[in-house]
Amino acid sequence: MIYFKLFGDFKIFVDGKQIIIKNNKNLKLLFYIISSRKTYISKEEIYEIFWKNMTRSYARKNLNVQMYNLKKTYEFLKDVIKNYRENIYIDRDKISSDYEFFMDNIGSNSLKALKIYSGDFLEGYEDDWIVEKRNQCRKLANLALYFHTEETKKVEILLEIQKDMREKPYVILFLNEIKKFRMRKGDFLLNLENGALVLLEKGNKTVSQVVNGFLKRSGIEHAKILNEDEALNLINFKNSNGEEKIYEKNL
Questions:
Q1: CB of 1 within 8 A of CB of 95?
Q2: How far from 218 is each of 74, 198, 211, 224, CA to CA, in Å?
Q3: pLDDT digits (tens, 9 = 90+) for 65-90
Q4: 3-state SS assignment for residue 217
Q5: Alpha-carbon separation of residue 172 from 111, 119, 192, 202, 205 (angstroms)
Q6: 133-183, pLDDT tens digit by residue?
Q7: Which alpha helices (H) appear in the chain, and where do they start and end?
Q8: Are the C-beta atoms of residues 220 and 179 closer than 8 Å to each other?
């Protein structure tokens, strides 16, 4: 079985063993084929994605070359992906991916799907079709979290997801005092035994801008920035009724 990890850093596992990725221009074609979730992909569809403004003869030649190079670079793909006259065939019984699992389960078992959502779809790649799928996954994950009623579990899932992400969508704060204030849409507040955990949506701002804006809005003077593991430890202490002293840090 070949397993493709498409969330966060791209990885390939063959029978449980991680394969060294050779960074070449054929990878994006492989990404598209694997994430299509189709058994047959028409070549016309691929031409429109990768060689839209080129002649069909040029597109056909490039696709054939890239397919040849893919299977030459990754020999385990020879019996999995077939280059037919009008279509690309994928033997779906021999492959699986975190993206496929996520899409199959996000509607029926969102908690199960969210646990495998370990980062943005194909981080570091900015092709239009990749960005479109990335935004779709973000939207589905956010909807699943929104409809999850248990706030602690929401925050826990978000932290687990963010651990493996290069670009951190949330700034994590610990407050020694529990105050009642209105949170902005997209932010989270979780009251603990000895304070509060706050997740602030970062957007395009710097960490300092996000934190200083929050402190000003809330009237709080001090907070401590945490990483994901520190925040998860606090939640675990909360769940087990343990206690942990965290000293505030001036920002």
A1: yes
A2: 54, 12, 11, 15
A3: 999 999 999 999 999 999 999 999 99
A4: helix
A5: 22, 17, 14, 10, 14
A6: 999 999 898 888 776 657 787 788 888 888 877 788 899 999 987 667 778
A7: 27-35, 43-50, 56-73, 98-105, 110-116, 128-146, 151-163, 207-218, 228-239
A8: yes
- In which residue are the tokens 């016309």 written? 44
Which letter, b or e, does each residue of 66-99 get, where b requires 16 or more Cβ atoms within 10 Å of its Cβ? bbeebbeebeebeebbeeeeebbebeeeebebbb
Give the type of residue at 14.
V
Render the burial of 151-173: b for 16+ CB within 10 Å, e for the rest. Answer: eeebbbbbbebbbebeeebbbbb
> Distance between CA 28 and CA 35 in Å, rounded?
10
Going by pLDDT thresholds of 50, 70 and 90, the confidence category of residue 239 is: low
Read off the DSSP letter of residue 33.
Answer: H
Measured distance CA(39)–CA(162) in Å, rounded: 32
Beta partners for residue 190, in sequence order: 197
Question: If we measure between CA atoms, which residue out of 176, 216, 165 comes closest to residue 198?
Answer: 176
Query: How far is it, in rounded angstroms, from Cα 77 to Cα 98?
Result: 18
* Side chain identity at residue 209, one-letter code: Q
What is the longest distance spanned by two Cα atoms in the chain? 68
CB distance 31 to 60 below 8 Å: no
